[in-house]
Write a structure and sequence with these properties.
With 142 residues, the chain is an alpha+beta fold. The protein has one domain: Alpha-Beta Plaits (2-Layer Sandwich), CATH 3.30.70. The protein has helices at residues 18-39, 60-71, 120-132, and strands spanning 3-12, 42-48, 51-59, 76-87, 97-101, 137-140. β2 and β3 (51-59) form a beta hairpin. The longest helix has 22 residues, at 18-39. It binds flavin mononucleotide. Flavin mononucleotide binds at residues 28, 31-32, 34-36, 41, 45, 52, 54, 56, 66, 69-70, 73, 75-76, 97.
Protein backbone atom coordinates (compact mmCIF):
# COMPACT_ATOMS: atom_id res chain seq x y z
CA UNK A 1 0.00 0.00 0.00
CA UNK A 2 1.43 3.37 -0.98
CA UNK A 3 1.21 5.77 1.94
CA UNK A 4 1.33 9.56 1.66
CA UNK A 5 1.27 12.49 4.05
CA UNK A 6 -0.53 15.66 3.02
CA UNK A 7 -0.20 19.01 4.75
CA UNK A 8 -2.61 21.87 4.25
CA UNK A 9 -3.70 25.04 6.00
CA UNK A 10 -6.94 26.96 5.81
CA UNK A 11 -8.73 29.87 7.44
CA UNK A 12 -11.46 29.15 9.99
CA UNK A 13 -14.78 30.93 9.51
CA UNK A 14 -17.08 32.47 12.16
CA UNK A 15 -14.75 32.82 15.09
CA UNK A 16 -16.95 35.11 17.18
CA UNK A 17 -19.12 32.73 19.17
CA UNK A 18 -17.07 30.45 21.48
CA UNK A 19 -19.95 27.99 21.91
CA UNK A 20 -20.34 27.64 18.16
CA UNK A 21 -16.57 27.37 17.81
CA UNK A 22 -16.46 24.47 20.28
CA UNK A 23 -19.40 22.72 18.64
CA UNK A 24 -17.64 22.88 15.29
CA UNK A 25 -14.44 21.39 16.64
CA UNK A 26 -16.50 18.67 18.36
CA UNK A 27 -18.29 17.78 15.15
CA UNK A 28 -15.05 17.71 13.11
CA UNK A 29 -13.49 15.40 15.69
CA UNK A 30 -16.59 13.18 15.64
CA UNK A 31 -16.26 12.93 11.85
CA UNK A 32 -12.58 11.96 12.27
CA UNK A 33 -13.50 9.21 14.74
CA UNK A 34 -16.33 8.02 12.49
CA UNK A 35 -14.45 7.95 9.19
CA UNK A 36 -10.69 7.94 9.57
CA UNK A 37 -10.18 4.46 11.05
CA UNK A 38 -12.04 2.71 8.24
CA UNK A 39 -10.19 4.80 5.62
CA UNK A 40 -6.81 4.14 7.23
CA UNK A 41 -6.28 7.85 7.92
CA UNK A 42 -4.21 9.22 10.79
CA UNK A 43 -2.86 12.67 11.52
CA UNK A 44 -2.95 15.88 13.49
CA UNK A 45 -5.16 18.97 13.33
CA UNK A 46 -4.03 22.21 14.87
CA UNK A 47 -5.84 25.50 15.29
CA UNK A 48 -3.81 28.58 15.84
CA UNK A 49 -4.75 32.24 15.48
CA UNK A 50 -7.76 31.39 13.38
CA UNK A 51 -5.97 28.96 11.06
CA UNK A 52 -6.26 25.22 10.71
CA UNK A 53 -3.15 23.21 9.88
CA UNK A 54 -3.74 19.53 9.27
CA UNK A 55 -1.47 16.61 8.46
CA UNK A 56 -3.40 13.71 6.95
CA UNK A 57 -1.60 10.45 6.31
CA UNK A 58 -2.77 7.17 4.88
CA UNK A 59 -3.27 5.42 1.54
CA UNK A 60 -2.85 7.88 -1.34
CA UNK A 61 -6.40 7.35 -2.62
CA UNK A 62 -7.88 7.88 0.86
CA UNK A 63 -5.89 11.05 1.56
CA UNK A 64 -6.85 12.47 -1.84
CA UNK A 65 -10.53 11.67 -1.34
CA UNK A 66 -10.57 13.17 2.16
CA UNK A 67 -8.83 16.36 1.00
CA UNK A 68 -11.50 16.77 -1.67
CA UNK A 69 -14.21 16.30 0.95
CA UNK A 70 -12.60 18.67 3.46
CA UNK A 71 -12.10 21.30 0.74
CA UNK A 72 -15.89 21.55 0.38
CA UNK A 73 -16.45 22.03 4.11
CA UNK A 74 -18.01 25.47 4.79
CA UNK A 75 -16.40 25.69 8.25
CA UNK A 76 -13.18 26.88 6.67
CA UNK A 77 -11.99 28.71 3.57
CA UNK A 78 -8.87 29.54 1.55
CA UNK A 79 -7.51 26.00 1.82
CA UNK A 80 -3.95 25.64 0.54
CA UNK A 81 -2.40 22.20 0.07
CA UNK A 82 1.20 22.91 0.98
CA UNK A 83 2.70 19.47 0.54
CA UNK A 84 2.08 15.83 -0.29
CA UNK A 85 4.89 13.33 0.14
CA UNK A 86 5.27 9.57 0.10
CA UNK A 87 5.87 7.83 3.41
CA UNK A 88 7.62 4.61 4.29
CA UNK A 89 5.96 4.65 7.69
CA UNK A 90 3.34 6.75 9.43
CA UNK A 91 4.40 9.53 11.72
CA UNK A 92 1.13 9.70 13.68
CA UNK A 93 0.28 5.99 13.59
CA UNK A 94 -1.48 5.78 16.93
CA UNK A 95 -4.21 8.38 16.41
CA UNK A 96 -6.96 8.72 13.86
CA UNK A 97 -6.67 12.45 14.58
CA UNK A 98 -5.01 14.51 17.30
CA UNK A 99 -6.47 17.95 17.85
CA UNK A 100 -4.51 20.76 19.43
CA UNK A 101 -5.55 24.28 20.21
CA UNK A 102 -2.11 25.84 19.82
CA UNK A 103 -3.31 29.19 21.16
CA UNK A 104 -2.85 27.50 24.55
CA UNK A 105 0.68 26.31 23.69
CA UNK A 106 3.76 27.72 25.48
CA UNK A 107 5.02 31.08 24.24
CA UNK A 108 8.45 29.52 23.49
CA UNK A 109 6.92 28.02 20.36
CA UNK A 110 6.82 31.49 18.89
CA UNK A 111 4.35 32.89 16.46
CA UNK A 112 2.61 31.14 13.61
CA UNK A 113 4.89 31.65 10.59
CA UNK A 114 3.78 33.72 7.61
CA UNK A 115 1.77 31.11 5.71
CA UNK A 116 2.31 32.82 2.36
CA UNK A 117 6.03 32.08 2.47
CA UNK A 118 6.58 29.30 5.02
CA UNK A 119 8.04 26.15 3.39
CA UNK A 120 6.22 22.86 4.06
CA UNK A 121 9.23 21.68 6.08
CA UNK A 122 8.80 24.59 8.49
CA UNK A 123 5.08 23.88 8.88
CA UNK A 124 5.67 20.16 9.46
CA UNK A 125 8.36 20.91 12.05
CA UNK A 126 5.91 23.22 13.79
CA UNK A 127 3.21 20.53 13.94
CA UNK A 128 5.75 18.21 15.59
CA UNK A 129 6.94 20.91 18.00
CA UNK A 130 3.37 21.67 19.04
CA UNK A 131 2.58 17.97 19.52
CA UNK A 132 5.75 17.57 21.60
CA UNK A 133 4.97 20.61 23.77
CA UNK A 134 3.07 20.29 27.04
CA UNK A 135 -0.19 21.28 25.43
CA UNK A 136 -3.45 19.38 25.85
CA UNK A 137 -4.00 17.03 22.92
CA UNK A 138 -7.46 15.74 22.21
CA UNK A 139 -7.60 12.46 20.36
CA UNK A 140 -10.22 10.99 18.06
CA UNK A 141 -10.02 7.30 18.97
CA UNK A 142 -7.99 5.27 16.48
C1 LIG B 1 -10.23 21.58 9.07
C2 LIG B 1 -11.09 20.36 8.89
C3 LIG B 1 -10.53 19.09 9.01
C4 LIG B 1 -11.32 17.94 8.84
N1 LIG B 1 -10.74 16.71 8.95
C5 LIG B 1 -11.51 15.60 8.77
C6 LIG B 1 -10.94 14.29 8.84
O1 LIG B 1 -9.75 14.09 9.09
N2 LIG B 1 -11.79 13.24 8.66
C7 LIG B 1 -13.12 13.38 8.41
O2 LIG B 1 -13.82 12.38 8.24
N3 LIG B 1 -13.68 14.61 8.32
C8 LIG B 1 -12.91 15.71 8.49
N4 LIG B 1 -13.48 16.95 8.41
C9 LIG B 1 -14.93 17.03 8.19
C10 LIG B 1 -15.30 16.83 6.72
O3 LIG B 1 -15.16 18.05 6.04
C11 LIG B 1 -16.76 16.33 6.58
O4 LIG B 1 -17.62 17.22 7.25
C12 LIG B 1 -16.93 14.95 7.20
O5 LIG B 1 -15.94 14.06 6.74
C13 LIG B 1 -18.33 14.39 6.87
O6 LIG B 1 -18.46 13.16 7.52
P1 LIG B 1 -19.80 12.32 7.45
O7 LIG B 1 -20.06 12.07 5.99
O8 LIG B 1 -19.50 11.08 8.23
O9 LIG B 1 -20.86 13.17 8.13
C14 LIG B 1 -12.69 18.10 8.57
C15 LIG B 1 -13.23 19.38 8.44
C16 LIG B 1 -12.47 20.51 8.60
C17 LIG B 1 -13.08 21.87 8.47
Amino acid sequence: MLLVSALYFSRMVDLDDPVEHRARIDSIMEACARNNPRLGLTGALIIERGWFTQVLEGPRWAVTAMLARIAKDPRHTAMVIADMQELTERRYADRSMSFIDADTAPAELGRLPDLDVAPAETLRARVDAILASPVRVRVAAA
